[in-house]
Amino acid sequence: MNTNRFSVNKQNADVDTGRRTFLKVAATGSAGLTLGISLSAGAQSRAVADTALEYNAFVSITPDNAVRIYIKHLEMGQGVYTGLATCVAEELDADWAQIVCEHAPVDTAKYANLLMGQQGTGGSTAMANSFMQLRRAGAAARAMLVAAAAQRWQVPADDIKVSQGIVSHASHSATFGELAIDAARQTPPANDNLKLKTPDQFQLIGSESTLRKDVGKHNGTAIYTQDVQLPGMLTAVVAHAPRFGARVRSFDATAALARKGVHQVFEIDTGVAVVADDYWSATKGRELLQIEWDETRAETRSSETLLQQYRSLVETGGTIAEQHGNAVTTLTNASDTMELVFEFPYLAHAQMEPVNCVAQVSGNSAELWYGCQSATGDQMAVAQLLGARPQDVKINTVFAGGGFGRRANPMADYVLEAVRIARQVPDTAVKLVWSREDDMQGGFYRPAYAHKLSAALDSQGNPTAFRARIAGQSIMAGTSMAAMMVSNGIDNTSVEGLTEFAYDVPERQVELHTTDVGIPVQWWRSVGNTHTAFSKEVFIDALARKADIDPIEYRLSLLGNNPRETAVLKLAAEKAGWGTRELPEGWGRGVAVHTSFGSTVAEIAEVSVQGNNFKVERVVAVIDCGIAVNPGVIRAQVEGAIAYGLSAALQDELTLTDGVVDQSNFHNYQVLRMNAMPIVETHILPSTNAPSGVGEPGTPPIAPAVANALADATGQRLTRLPLRLA
Amino acid sequence: MSYTLKINGQNHELDVDGDMPLLWAVRDHLKFTGTKFGCGMAQCGACTLHIDGVATRSCVLPVADAVGKEITTIEGLASPAARAVQTAWVELQVPQCGYCQSGQVMSATALLEQNNAPSDADIDSAMSGNICRCGTYPRIKAGIKLAADQIKNAGGVA
């Protein structure tokens, strides 16, 4: 069985012929045709398994005994291949070794994210929206196998057993593959007739044994957008304006066109495209372009100017996002108060695979190959651009080399750029490649923000009123999602995490100043919680210290109405040895707890400090994400989420001078490397609740936990990211 | 201009500019796409391959300078150390998005071929040139240690 269908790349395989041949061979029960399917034009994700062997939208079983699971979410490192397959395999009683995953095609009717109403990956919803759907898909396929066996053996279906990929009854036994064709002809059972397992019957869900899915990421055979090879494919790069909002006034392509390997140079909406034989030729051609930019509408402010403005804004009242009681009056009349101002820089996603997309436009239709995250949105955007129907835009999803939010662009920015180029080179596949510099300077950043948090305190140091003011750009304004996410001038992603405050403070007010800036912004792993969890958890810590109460005790006393936060905090304290484990000289310890995407995470960081330098030595994390479908994936995600958030806590910072981005590559946009990675211990809180998010919730608590540990070690209360000791 | 590159034990004739980085010759012209493009300036390590057994960033190495050298890409990795590393990578589920992992495997293999019992500090020093934005660093470290143990148990030949 070939677990990675892209690993064998035979250029001569004609997919349509392959499909017909496959059916013929399948009918005789031969296997082996899963090999040799190329990723050529026309290949699509269900090239191997014909629809005749699809039991439902998610499961296909072929005579070669492969159980193919169509994954409706983009695999970008968050583990959906493993996690989602676990749900199907569990109810199907498949042998884990026979599971093959592949990305589902873009087909909103079949593969919508049930929490979004359209096909797409994001908001840490993959498991939450799929858990029951995929278990039903597995159970339905199992019922069809059992029905086929009952028919073949002439025995009652109720007496048939299924275990680890074998269907059996007394002396009869068959593999899934042996029943595949007969079973596929059975009428799929109605959802109401499906018997799902009870949690005590789970074999795979919650299993601590690592459910390995080797998809070629250890040996270079996994295929990403960058690796897609198509006959006659050309490579394109684009010269973008140095300032956001600028446009091409004029350009001279004479020298570029004279460069060996360069085919075409033309203007598109976003700049000047160079189409060439390969990436190197395209890049060299781009260097030879002479472009004059029209900067009439360009954003020319510096990030420091913007942050100065934000610091002033948070001194004044903003639009009210949430109000309980009369916090403002209580604050004005309080005898004791605390105020802290926080600052957050722009952040690039800096995923390892820079933005890219392969597109071919033929007449009114298009075919694309890339790590497609906003499936429905991208398909609609391309269809609109071409005047085509959505179904005329075929999208083949391949692995994404990280995303962290960047690949789900509400404007489909890079996808439309690829299509705009490809339609000028009709009937030819064109791979659009952004260099690292293009990617880092190409916008769609986590916005910069300033916050001011204020509390009125009673005589014991407990908050009686709390106010948060936030200033920064809206991620959603002006996008197709504004209608859903922005109401009464409040973009929920600007305030989430400070609204729905976890701590029991009777009077609360959250205010927002949405700023108008021409720098493109976008969500970044955990979205608004990237900044709101920091100010909230650092502020609470400062209140605890001011009251001279242990920071965990102080939090627990304010979390009486919040059993989940209470439980993860207590377990984290126990696992970290809070109050019992003695730290070496010069070390400090800090805690933070935050709920996002339906999951609650507490993290305790230990730091060592030497002068103005520090190292995060150890992090203990506890997550409550409902039923832990695949503990191995959950631990990996929490580790990764901590690393990603720690990178921003320690060094990520994108700045602009007069509208030009100062950083360009990893030499001046420093990210976390192995030598700065702490030991991470992740614990999963047992739960019987429905599964909730895992990819993002580990990120928000790490920066405040580290800042609080630094306060513990040095007494310095840092309120600006990245963290720098004075 | 025509260049002959010896990659994974086989000679390949290439008609490219001598200043083309080896990465693009390998990826775009010879279709060895396991070696990845991440930064183009030897900052991230995604393009790591072996030149005469030494982990090398191919994104800044001109093709002309690679002539006459033994070039090994991830597709050609075959040493006991490489097998131990790749086995450990699957065993410990090291990769997440996986895009940097070819480079990580190449750097880890080169490390173990020279030092089959690396300390934490040795690992940090050998691996800190390879960025992983998914944050798989703890598992990479554990993977290298597991591979080192396997090599030791097999008789110590990397």
Summarize the structure in words.
The complex is a heterodimer of chains A (726) and B (158). Chain A is of the alpha+beta class. Chain A has three domains: 15-201, Aldehyde Oxidoreductase, domain 4 (2-Layer Sandwich); 225-296 and 355-433, Aldehyde oxidase/xanthine dehydrogenase, molybdopterin binding domain (Aldehyde Oxidoreductase, domain 4); 303-346 and 445-714, Aldehyde Oxidoreductase, domain 4 (2-Layer Sandwich). Chain A has a seven-stranded mixed β-sheet, sandwiched between helices. A five-stranded mixed β-sheet of chain A has the order 12-22-19-18-13, sandwiched between helices. Chain A has a four-stranded mixed β-sheet with strand order 23-24-25-28. In chain A, α2 (80-92) packs parallel to α4 and α4 packs across α5 (176-184). The longest helix of chain A is centred in the N-terminal third of the chain and has 28 residues, at 126-153. Chain A is globular and about 85 Å long. Mean pLDDT of chain A is 92; it is low at 1-49. Chain B is of the alpha+beta class and 158 residues long. Chain B folds into two domains: 2-76, Ubiquitin-like (UB roll) (Roll), CATH 3.10.20.30; 80-153, Orthogonal Bundle (DNA polymerase, domain 1). Helices cover 40% and strands 15% of the residues of chain B. Chain B has helices at residues 22-29, 63-66, 80-91, 101-114, 120-127, 137-153, and strands at 2-7, 10-15, 48-51, 54-57, 70-72. A five-stranded mixed β-sheet of chain B has the order 2-1-5-3-4, sandwiched between helices. The mean pLDDT of chain B is 96. At the A-B interface, α18 of A face α1, α3, α4, α5 and α6 of B. Chain A: GO terms for molecular function: oxidoreductase activity. Chain A: It holds the Pfam family MoCoBD_1. Chain A: InterPro entries: Ald_Oxase/Xan_DH_a/b, AldOxase/xan_DH_MoCoBD1, AldOxase/xan_DH_MoCoBD2, AldOxase/xan_DH_Mopterin-bd_sf, N-heterocyclic_Hydroxylase, OxRdtase_Mopterin-bd_su_IorB, TAT_signal. Chain A: It comes from marine sediment metagenome.
